[in-house]
Amino acid sequence: MTDRFFIAHIFFFVALVFLLCAAVVVLKRQRTSWKPMLLAVLPLGLIFMTAYLGKHSPVSHQVLNIFYDGLLIYNAYYFWNIGQVLTFWFYVFAIIATALDFAMHFVIRMM
């Protein structure tokens, strides 16, 4: 059971690492601007809220997860537009890890 939980959530942790890396880069580079800082911190809060709601309220989890996914896509677009390519790639990898996490839940249910 614990092996299945770890396998199902490995990509969640990968996404979390990329989000933390993006937040650190944004905090170091754009400490004075509020919009990039908000865009960097908001997905971190949302990823923890979706993890909490996954166990307690599956419908709320799904709704919040859609907002989280959209925010990641927007962040990738935003940081690409302002020329922060490293942060852009962190968000692209977080999007990929989130998609793999989503797919892994279906694979685990079939086992």
Notes on the structure:
The chain is mostly helical and 111 residues long. The protein is built from four helices and no strands. Helix 1 (2-29) packs antiparallel against helix 4 and helix 3 (58-81) runs antiparallel to helix 4 (85-110). It is elongated, with a radius of gyration of 15 Å.
Give a summary of the structure in a few sentences.
It is built from four helices and no strands. The protein has about 110 residues and is mostly helical.
Features:
single chain, 111 residues, mainly alpha, 4 helices, 0% strand, elongated
Could you give the topology of this structure?
Layout: H1 2-29, H2 34-56, H3 58-81, H4 85-110
Helix pairs in contact: 1-2, 1-4, 2-3, 3-4
The description of the largest β-sheet is: none
Radius of gyration: 15 Å
Number of strands: 0
Structural class by helix and strand composition: mainly alpha
Portion of residues within helices:
over 70%
Q: Number of DSSP helices? A: 4
How does the overall form come out from the CA principal axes?
A: elongated
Q: Which band does the percent of strand residues land in?
A: under 5%
User: What sequence of helices (H) and strands (E) makes up the elements?
Assistant: HHHH
